[in-house]
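Render this sequence as a predicted structure.
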Amino acid sequence: MTHGMTHGMTYINVWITECLTDTVKLLVFLTLPLHRDMMMSLDDKGSVQIQTKVLPQDSWTQVSCPCCVSKQVESLVLIQLSDNVQPVTKRWLISLIEASKRHGGAALLAHPGEDECGDVIVVSAPRCTLLRATEDLGLCKKYRNKEMASFSYHDRDNFTNVDDMQEFLTLAERQYIVKNELDSLQAQKKQRIPGVPEAPGVLEAWENICQKLVRAGVIKDIFPLHDQQRLNDVCRRWYSKKQIWRQPLDAIQSYFGGTMAFYFSFLQFYTWALVPPAFLGLVLTFLLPGGGGVVKEQAVEGVMEEEDYGPSVSGHMVQAVFSMLWSTLFIEFWKRRSSSLSHRWGTRHLTERFAEPRPGFQGTLGLNPVTGRLEPLFPEWQRQLRVGLVSLPLVGLFLGLVVLGMTGFYHGEALVQGFHQDSGSLFSGALLYLPSMAHTVYTNILKNVYHAVAMQLTKWENHREESSFQNHHITKVLLFTFFNNFAVLFHIAFYKQDLPLLRKKLASLLILNQLVNQCTEVVVPFIVDRFLSAAHKKEQEDNLEMDKLRAQRSLPPFPGLFAEYIELLVKFGYLSLFSCVYPLTAVLLLLNNITEIPGDAYKICKLFRKPFSAPVSNMGVWQTAFEVLGFVSVMSNCWLLLLSPRVQEFCLEGGISGKNIILFAILVEHVLILVKMILAFMIPDEPDWVRIKREQIEFNSMQALGQQKL
């Protein structure tokens, strides 16, 4: 393996100024260190030209299709084999990768790496394989009339850039297609894996080959390769220039894929959307009388008492109504933005395919009644039994621990309140925030433990399809997250009806969580990357035999965006559910997002391996979760407005009875829910131009299908 992994020959020109003498040029030429795969020469203009060889092109497996023959092959995916893999096993796997599909292969290109007996295989894809997979996935590409159209292999010559795969498909799409083709490798008949012991080395007919090799310990990992030049360009345009308000979304989608691009697009849209509520929060806090909710002390018969009524009546009403309308408009306009992006990226009409068993699925080998293929089978009743008798009780146990922490929080709150009333000092006043902070730390620790338990439970439930696995895992985590983060707030608000305590709890949650997240997500990884790993990096830089490929293999795998979406969802809940109590919520969230965007970008670019990214048309289940919180915010804000001491005083002064207040609140709640539903109905999920383009694509696809049948 050589110093670079990009296709072709990499030239590094070291220009020497004209004032240097020929002797100095010669000394520079002779003293520059050379890699074993580098060649150096001086040209007639006095520049030192270092030519770095990459993967030898003649070592790639050959293709039989004339249109797929290329002088330069792009390295896309790396298969990491075990350290003790036998050469015969490696050659057998390479032969499977290069074989045509009618012979049970993946129709890909393979390279053995720097050594035939080494522990890596580099994989690429020929043009025809990429084009056929593009049609199977249902991707849309630019037609000859410059409009997006569903790609058809039979009509491929009428699409633009169809002869240049690096222009026709993004890097993320090409790498995902390679991974998809590798995952679809299946044994045509029962056979032994060469070089693997008898017990784990038997492949049954129609068994998934890659999953079998992972279980047998032959394959350690499969991951996409970075293109260092393109990565540096994305980084320079992304977080190096601090482009928080306008990120290079097309470059992110092209390099990292749609999953990553939709997350950062949503984060950018969310950050822009926070500006109006943040401005309103500042106005209500600092310009309206009593808007800040600042605790005031007054002497009553020699005893210091607190008053903390928060915003005025008008401030409460404005903030509550604004939060309800804002959450609705935010979600509806994001849907429109999401549909526009999916059309632009050609993922609006993705094809639903019959799902293969996920890698971790286990069971007794048998014939699938749908496909007729041999694969692991697991009875559905056993899975339901595991869910009902084990998973649900354990989830209930953790929810009980949440209640236990809530009880401890109230007990601690009563203790410090009593201590503060006895002493009345500044120290005791500061201690008032200690129970909230301790409860925040407790919930964070409990959250981390539960996330690990939820993952193990979902794996143990043994779901066949990846989508089912993700849905069950996300449901577990969302249920606990909602209960863990919002149960204590709802209890304070609607059971204890203590809005000053709710305000303090919400403030401590926002401030402490923001500090913890910034430390764990940005500061700690930055310190590890810059200082603790400095010696390892220096060793790589000084040793020219160390390949960039090995540096990528040493990076940890990307953990995914699950935790990032959970964090955004929780903070969106704080804003939409409780911001009328603490108007500065949006201000703190805006500050958090401003640091979140470059922090997440830095982590993805520098601290982890490049992840695979399947083409997606939206955020998936996360968008539904945000919609549910937006709906709950209507009820939450209505009843918080009713419980406000200032509103209650205002109603009592007007002679309104408690029963009439409740009836009026219920009426207002239903009216606002109706307004929310009307707004959601009146705002289309996609702009008119996207709808027209979508209908044109569907019409043209039906016509093309009819012509193919004829």
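Summary. The chain has 24 helices and 15 strands. The first helix runs from residue 22 to 31.
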